[in-house]
Protein: LuxR family transcriptional regulator
Amino acid sequence: MYIYIIDDDDAVRESTELLLSTSSFDASIETFASAEEFFDQDLLGHSGCVLLDIRMPGMDGVEALKKITASESNLVVVMISGHGDIPKAVETMKAGAFSFVEKPFSDTAITEVVTSALQQSEAQQEEAELRAHAIIAIEKLTLREKEVLDKLVLGLLNKVIAYELGISTRTVEVHRARIMEKLDVRSLPEMVRLCLLVEGKDNALAAT
Structure:
């Protein structure tokens, strides 16, 4: 996990780094004087928290936030706002920011929001890994297994699936068992959750 501090104010950047480095975060901390400097390092594939100042010369915090969210990165963004930037900070939350802290912020405020952001990033990373696993597993299903899975996700009973596909209920049960084995799940709700997770990103249940 990483904590990235992006702020053109040297004093804010250095004091925040010092505070977080002396806290109990299990994360590497890096600082950047501009959004351009951050993006030049190609760090969007990492997980962690970005403390991002709203007002900076060149690319401002709003533009940088939109670039991070558009990349579907697991980095969670916390906006740093001045007193007059609250309306803009609220706008950034609608654009995907996790939260914002107002300058001058207290030690407690910044450590609490970074803790929450890191937890959110970790959850997003776990979900992304689960989704990737599910996509690969679903792609390995046979055409018939995908057809059965589609109907299981719709909540149809085995006998209804059998009727609609023109196969026996026993055959549906066999397919269902094989599907659960390939997806590495132990229950129907777990199977449905995996499929919905995949469908949120791609139509992985479509026959190929």
